[in-house]
Design goal:
about 200 residues; alpha/beta; Rossmann fold; seven-stranded mixed sheet; about 25% strand; methionyl-tRNA formyltransferase activity; transferase; Formyl_transf_N
């Protein structure tokens, strides 16, 4: 399976490492900033790196030829329709909430702010609306009393994301397709951004 990884920062690097250990071919890494640690890790591993022309949008020419699947890992860029069409199976991303709950950039912070006793993570199909594509995999964890968003992310949600991504990749290798369950909009939350 040929993967184009779009991402950044520590979670991008840990995803890159998980993919390398998981028997897939990472044909290109796409980053918004050439100085990002994901770009450095990819170059060190001999993987081609492309820097987005627009940090808010990934376009088809930035996706490696013959890509089977686009994976996003800590990317805040939208993957354009043309880019998704360039990959045989489209694209998936990890969101640190039980989608459709807490869509958006501050999902873990909203989990803590709302006092949710349970958190979770979702592998979802990339779509026009941010965090609104079909669910490929989902799992949950408890939130510890007094835990900060960062503590919850590091203890439970980042490792959960890597596990779920690996599970979906294994499924795709066997079935040559991705699981998909439509999100139930009646459970969507909309919260103002935290500032």
């Amino acid at each position: 399976m040929r993967i184009t990884l779009v991402g950044s920062r520590h979670f991008g690097v840990t995803t890159l490492n998980m993919l390398r250990e998981h028997g897939v071919s990472i044909v290109r890494v796409v980053v918004a900033d050439s100085e990002d640690r994901l770009a450095a890790a990819a170059k060190a591993a001999g993987i081609e790196v492309a820097v987005q022309a627009n940090p808010k949008l990934v376009i088809a020419s930035e996706i490696a030829p013959d890509t089977d699947l686009i994976i996003t890992a800590h990317s805040h860029a939208r993957i354009g329709k043309d880019a998704l069409a360039a990959a045989r199976l489209g694209g998936i991303g990890y969101h640190p909430s039980l989608l459709p709950r807490h869509r958006g950039k501050a999902a873990v912070e909203w989990t803590i702010k709302e006092g949710d006793p349970i958190a979770g993570g979702t592998i979802y199909h990339l779509a026009d609306r941010m965090d609104a594509g079909a669910i490929a995999a989902q799992d949950w964890c408890f939130v510890k009393k007094g835990e900060t968003a960062r503590e919850l992310w590091e203890r439970a949600l980042a490792p959960l994301g890597l596990k779920l991504l690996a599970d979906v990749i294994d499924y795709a290798k066997v079935h040559k397709a991705l699981p998909a369950k439509t999100q139930d909009e009646q459970f969507a939350t909309s919260a103002p951004s935290l500032s």
